[in-house]
TrEMBL record, chain A:
Protein name, entry field: NADH-quinone oxidoreductase subunit J
EC number per UniProt: 7.1.1.-
Keywords of this entry: Cell membrane, Membrane, NAD, Quinone, Transmembrane, Transmembrane helix
Catalytic activity field: a quinone + NADH + 5 H(+)(in) = a quinol + NAD(+) + 4 H(+)(out)
Enzyme class (EC, first level): translocase
MF-aspect GO terms: NADH dehydrogenase (ubiquinone) activity; quinone binding
Record keyword Lipid metabolism present: no
Residues spanning the membrane: 6-22, 29-46, 52-74, 86-108, 138-159
Main location class: membrane
Any one Gene Ontology cellular component term annotated for this protein: plasma membrane
Gene3D superfamilies the record matches: NADH-ubiquinone/plastoquinone oxidoreductase chain 6, subunit NuoJ
From TrEMBL, chain B:
Record-annotated NADH:quinone oxidoreductase/Mrp antiporter transmembrane domain positions: 135-425
Name of the protein in its database record: NADH:ubiquinone oxidoreductase subunit L
The keyword Cell division belongs to this UniProt entry's keyword annotation: no
PANTHER family: NADH-UBIQUINONE OXIDOREDUCTASE CHAIN 5
MF annotations from Gene Ontology: NADH dehydrogenase (ubiquinone) activity; NADH dehydrogenase activity
Pfam families assigned to the protein according to its UniProt record, in alphabetical order: Proton_antipo_M (PF00361), Proton_antipo_N (PF00662)
Highest taxon listed in the record's lineage: Bacteria
Gene Ontology CC terms: endomembrane system; membrane
Transmembrane segments: 6-24, 31-52, 87-105, 117-135, 141-159, 180-201, 213-230, 251-269, 281-302, 309-327, 333-355, 376-394, 414-437, 457-477, 505-524, 574-593, 605-625
Topology class, membrane: Multi-pass membrane protein
InterPro entries: NADHpl_OxRdtase_5_subgr (IPR018393), ND/Mrp_TM (IPR001750), NU5C-like (IPR003945), Proton_antipo_N (IPR001516)
UniProt entry tagged with the keyword Transmembrane helix: yes
Compartments in which it is found: Endomembrane system; Membrane
TrEMBL record, chain C:
Organism lineage string: Bacteria, Pseudomonadati, Bacteroidota, Flavobacteriia, Flavobacteriales
UniProt family annotation: Belongs to the complex I subunit 4L family.
Keywords: Cell membrane, Membrane, NAD, Oxidoreductase, Quinone, Translocase, Transmembrane, Transmembrane helix, Transport
Protein origin, superkingdom: Bacteria
First-level EC class: translocase
Subunit composition and interactions: NDH-1 is composed of 14 different subunits. Subunits NuoA, H, J, K, L, M, N constitute the membrane sector of the complex.
Enzyme Commission number(s) of this protein: 7.1.1.-
Segments traversing the membrane: 12-30, 36-55, 67-90
GO annotation, biological process: ATP synthesis coupled electron transport
Xref: InterPro entries: NADH_UbQ_OxRdtase_chain4L/K, NUOK/Mnh_C1-like
The encoding gene: nuoK
Native organism: Flavobacterium rakeshii
One annotated Gene Ontology cellular component of this protein: NADH dehydrogenase complex
Protein topology in the membrane: Multi-pass membrane protein
The name this protein goes by in its record: NADH-quinone oxidoreductase subunit K
Length: 167, 627, 106
């Protein structure tokens, strides 16, 4: 199992890096899809089937297709992006180091709090249980999520509509 | 009926004021003056009717108009009281007021603002009546402040002259100091007695039920005396009165000699039952009065301005009245107030007549010989001078002699001071008389040509006042005093009657001899030697100190004005600069921060994100790692 | 029931998520292309989601997974609106280089 984890982790981090470093946005998108699949693999390792499925559907299926579609629409599939200035890139690397250092230091400091893991044997992540929790305890946020999606849909339509006032 | 009459008495001058102030400009010629005179004469007539009524019935007339304010059980009414004391005061306020109004018609004839003058004069009479008639301290205070205001307006009547404005301001500010004392005294009395009504306070004191220890009353009495000091020009607040001579001469006669300056004496007499409870304050009053009398008389010895001499003489005479008050001889003080009102008004009006003839010249060094051209003025002036110098049978003799007699019985050092002041008075008054009316004319030829006797409107009041100055003493002859009996209901503690024995006659003799010494000295110097006071620069030695009024103004300037200026400039130059520097510094800092911070908003999203990441990092470090 | 955490340990997931998040941050700062920056944001969101699932398993609590579900919904909404904005920008500027968006300069 540990081997599987390492392989999956390597794929995740690797494709994430490639996403960022690829010159062509199309390539970035495809690497990102791979990255999402590997994360879905992590979910499966946790035995969280519902999330794994939803993740693939939402991210790889919906979001990434939307992105690819946009890239195609805007005709951005060329490697014409100019690099940022050296200073900016240097600053980005510094920020990366800084964030990594700070977060890792925080977690390492938090290590003593984390106790050994015990299995209680309860079922807590089958679709059945999740559905009950979602529709009992988190009923109201669930409904709000639907409203949010509706609003964002309307917003997206409004924003991308061609404006006829000026033209 | 009584209420209506009293309101007429009170409001007639006020109506005169309203008409003159709003329509006076349109009235032509002497009309504003006639109007003002009629208004005051109306008051005088009503006063006379009340005076006769109260004289016969002995019952005061009380008029309660309406409630002014109520604070829990503390109540102040707009109420008036016409008793013996206030009627006596009203008599000479409105009486002399009428004469002086009449005089002013002619005197102010050429002034373009004559309607304003009469408006102020009427307003003054109105406030003076309020002061005298009120039946509680708060109404007296209204009148008190009102006459102060009118005094200010009238001293600065010729407002185009800067010095006159300064004199007006000085009078106003000096009076404010006293008024603060008066107000504090009122507050203390209100606190102690829960009322400001004279009758209530008197009943409370006479029933012996005092809620507070007597030092409360002493402090109140002292505060009231400070108020009286300011209004009646006593040490240390007297310096405004000589400067107040900047006003037109009728004003000096009415306000700064006969009526307003006696308000302090009225107030103390009104509250005599209160001052009786505070012997220590009475002592202070007596000493202050005697010392003021002496100092003012000594300054008066050497002044050259005819009105300044009279002003210092007024301060000196007021000092004598306070001496009497301090000795508990309220009737005698009132007696002197009345006689003084007669002869001092006459003197001031006479000097006004002289100044009128001299076309505004007030310096006695440039007068002389006026006896021949201004006969009426001279004779009336002579009578009044004899009265103030204390020669029998003129009125001033009786009142002054009574004061000195009382002083002799109670406190010999004060008697000595008072007697010396009297001798000085005789000297400087005759010096004034000789320099002005005797010998040859010393002014310019131009002035000499125009010398003339004043018209009838000016001489008539002079004659009336001179007659009063001559016979005024009759109201309180030694041994048989009508005034004492008349005032008996108002004065709580009757002063013991002096038996007219050998001592008394001897004292009279001493006083007369003293007066003759003063007159003789003046005669020797100014008639025999024909000396005329030299120019300012020639004065040396102690005379110079006297001529400069003991440098009191300079001392006040050095002790009070300069430190306040210094404090003010310190606050202005140091504190304000520091504070405003700090405030402006904050503003500048914000400005600089804004200008510099503006460049942070450079529109580069990359930079914003970088800053955002740094911010998140520092927040995490602060929350999770720093502790 | 066997659990993955017994073999792998929660620390490894923490490190993985942290690194993934850092990669996302780096991407946002490093690139000029707005779409790639968007993708970096998605990477960051996923790093957090992964950690949430890990701790949900660790605490054996379904709430964590429900939260991930909501987070996905929000991400979907965000991408929809964000891409719409990008389209609008592209229409106006003919590119989506963030360095050319300097209108915010004060």
């Amino acid at each position: 199992m540990l081997t599987v984890f390492y392989i999956l982790s390597a794929i995740t981090l690797g494709t994430a890096f490639l996403t960022i470093l690829s010159k062509n946005p199309i390539h970035s998108a495809i690497y990102l899809v791979l990255c999402f699949f590997s994360i879905a693999g992590h979910y499966l390792l946790f035995n969280a089937q519902f999330l794994a499925i939803v993740h693939i559907i939402v991210y790889s299926g919906a979001i990434m297709i939307l992105m690819l579609f946009t890239i195609m629409l805007m005709n951005l599939n060329k490697e014409d992006e100019q690099n940022k200035s050296v200073l900016t890139r240097f600053a980005a690397v510094i920020a990366l180091g800084l964030v990594a250092f700070v977060l890792l230091a925080t977690f390492i400091k938090a290590q003593p709090v984390i106790e050994g893991y015990q299995v209680s044997g309860q079922d807590y992540q089958s679709i059945k249980v999740l559905g009950k929790v979602l529709l009992n305890e988190y009923m109201v946020p669930f409904e709000f999520a639907s409203v949010l999606l509706l609003v964002s849909m309307i917003g997206a339509v409004l924003l991308s509509k061609k404006e006829h006032i000026n033209s | 009926m009584e209420t209506n009459l009293a309101l007429l008495l009170l409001l007639a001058p006020f109506i005169g004021f309203l008409i003159n102030v709003f329509a006076g400009k349109k009235l032509s010629g002497n009309l504003p003056g006639i109007l003002g005179t009629v208004a005051v004469a109306t008051s005088f007539a009503v006063t006379l009717s009340f005076f006769l009524q109260v004289s016969s019935s002995k019952e005061p007339v009380m008029i309660d108009l309406f409630e002014w304010m109520q604070l829990r059980n503390f109540k102040v009414n707009i109420a008036f009281q016409l008793d013996q004391l206030s009627l006596l005061w009203l008599m000479f306020v409105t009486g002399i007021g009428t004469l002086i109004h009449m005089y002013s018609i002619s005197y102010m004839h050429d002034d373009e603002n004559v309607h304003k003058f009469f408006a102020y004069l009427n307003l003054f009479v109105f406030f003076m009546i309020t002061l005298v008639m009120g039946s509680n301290l708060l109404i007296m205070f209204i009148g008190w402040e009102g006459v102060g205001l009118c005094s200010y307006l009238l001293i600065g009547f010729w407002y185009k002259n800067h010095d006159y404005n300064d004199a007006a301001k000085k009078a106003f500010i000096m009076n404010r100091i006293g008024d603060l004392g008066f107000l504090i005294g009122i507050f203390i009395l209100g606190f102690i007695f829960n009322s400001l009504d004279y009758t209530v306070i008197r009943t409370a004191i006479e029933s012996g039920k005092l809620l507070q220890p007597s030092w409360g009353i002493s402090i109140a009495a002292l505060c009231l005396f400070i108020g009286a000091c300011g209004k009646s020009a006593q040490i240390p607040l007297y310096t405004w009165l000589p400067d107040a001579m900047a006003g037109p001469t009728p004003v000096s006669a009415l306000i700064h000699a006969a009526t307003m300056v006696t308000a302090g004496i009225f107030m103390i007499t009104r509250l005599n039952f209160l001052f009786d409870l505070a012997p220590e304050v009475q002592n202070i009053i007596a000493i202050v009065g005697a010392v003021t009398s002496l100092i003012a008389a000594s300054i008066g010895l050497i002044q050259n301005d005819i009105k300044k001499v009279l002003a210092y003489s007024t301060v000196s005479q007021l000092g004598l009245m306070f001496l009497a008050l301090g000795l508990g001889a309220y009737q005698i003080a009132v007696f002197h107030v009345i006689t003084h009102a007669f002869f001092k008004a006459c003197l001031f009006l006479g000097s006004g007549s002289v100044i009128h003839a001299m076309h505004g010249e007030q310096d006695m060094r440039y007068m002389g010989g006026l006896r021949k051209v201004m006969k009426v003025t001279f004779i009336t002036f002579l009578i009044s001078t004899l009265a103030i110098s204390g020669l029998p049978p003129f009125s001033g003799f009786f009142s002054k002699d009574e004061i000195l007699m009382t002083a002799f019985h109670d406190n010999k050092p004060l008697w000595v001071i008072g007697s010396v002041a009297s001798i000085m008075t005789a000297f400087y008054m005759f010096r004034l008389l000789y320099l002005t009316f005797y010998k040859d004319f010393r002014g310019t030829e131009e002035q000499k040509k125009h010398l003339h006797e004043s018209p009838g409107l000016i001489t008539f009041p002079l004659i009336v006042l001179a007659i009063l100055a001559l016979v005024g003493g009759a109201i309180s002859l030694p041994g048989n005093s009508w005034l004492n009996e008349y005032l008996a209901p108002v004065i709580a503690k009757q002063s013991e009657h002096h038996h007219m024995g050998t001592t008394e006659y001897m004292l009279m003799g001493v006083a007369i001899i003293g007066a003759f010494i003063g007159i003789g000295l003046a005669y020797a110097k100014y008639i025999k030697q024909s000396s005329v006071p030299g120019q300012d620069s020639e004065i040396t030695g102690f005379a110079k100190v006297l001529y400069n009024k003991f440098y009191v103004d300079e001392i006040y300037t050095a002790l009070i004005v300069k430190p306040i200026y210094a404090l003010g400039s310190f606050f202005k130059n140091a504190i304000e600069v520091a504070i405003s520097g700090f405030i402006f510094g904050l503003g500048k800092l914000a400005n600089v921060l804004g200008t510099e911070g503006k460049t942070l908003q450079n529109g580069s999203i990359g930079f914003y994100l970088f800053a955002f990441v740094l911010g998140i990092c520092s927040i995490i470090v602060y929350i999770f790692l720093a502790k | 029931m066997e659990n993955i955490l017994q073999q792998i340990g929660i620390e490894n997931y923490i490190y993985l998520s942290t690194l993934l998040f850092c990669v996302g941050v780096f991407g946002v700062l490093f690139r000029r292309n707005a779409i790639v920056m968007f993708m970096s944001i998605e990477i960051m969101l996923n790093a957090v989601n992964l950690l949430l699932v890990a701790f949900s398993t660790y605490h054996q609590d379904a709430a964590g997974q429900v939260f991930v579900f909501f987070s996905m919904a929000v991400a979907a909404a965000e991408v929809a609106v964000g891409l719409a904005i990008l389209v609008a920008i592209y229409r106006n500027l003919n590119n989506i280089d963030i360095d050319s968006l300097k209108k915010l300069k004060g």
